[in-house]
Design a protein that fits this description.
This protein is 41% helix and 27% strand. The chain is α+β, with helices and mostly antiparallel strands and 181 residues long. 34% of the residues are buried.
């Protein structure tokens, strides 16, 4: 059983590395369509609801936004961000997903009130294999590719992604995507 789990983990890591290589090489073809982000967030949140409930974490969604984007790739972005937020939220915590339209862009903020990311590590969280924050890495079984994938997908859509973290407000990942392309 342990060998099968390790095989699955390695298989996911290889798939993630291949995805990043194709994205770097611009071999990914985006299948753009109109995407109601609030609907996609609701679908992804429903997928993680059981894990969140087991941890005593609630997922709260507010706002609306629409973009022209590749729906499946955006689901992957949202899945990585929500999964991380649930994983790093304490029992009784809330994962907040806020959607908004800001200056011709859709903004998606995914936040949690868990242990903050040390400011020295924050500039590196989108780097491949980076897992510099020992407190947060201790609760993660990932390979350090999830946020690198988020960044690649967002940049393929001509958007941007950033992170803020502080003890009083928690950690928030912000994705900004152009509304039309």
């Amino acid at each position: 059983e342990a060998n099968i789990e390790e095989f699955e983990r390695l298989s996911r890591m290889v798939d993630d590395m291949l995805f990043l290589a194709r994205a770097d090489d611009a071999r990914l073809v985006l299948s753009r369509e109109t995407v109601a982000l609030h609907e996609e967030v609701a679908k992804v949140a429903a997928f993680f609801e059981t894990v969140a409930e087991e941890k005593g974490v609630r997922i709260a969604i507010e706002g609306e936004a629409t973009v022209r984007a590749d729906r499946l790739l955006l689901q992957r972005v949202l899945g990585n961000l929500i999964s991380n937020a649930v994983r790093h939220s304490p029992a009784g915590g809330v994962v907040s997903v806020k959607l908004d339209m800001v200056q011709g862009e859709a903004a998606v903020d995914v936040g949690n009130c868990g242990e903050p990311i040390d400011p020295t590590h924050l500039p590196h969280v989108f780097e491949r294999f980076y897992r510099g924050d020992a407190a947060r890495a201790a609760v993660s079984e990932g390979a350090g590719l999830g946020l690198a994938i988020v960044k690649s997908i967002v940049e393929l859509h001509a958007g941007s992604v950033s992170a803020t973290s502080d003890p009083s407000t928690g950690t928030t990942f912000r994705v900004r995507l152009p509304t039309a392309m």
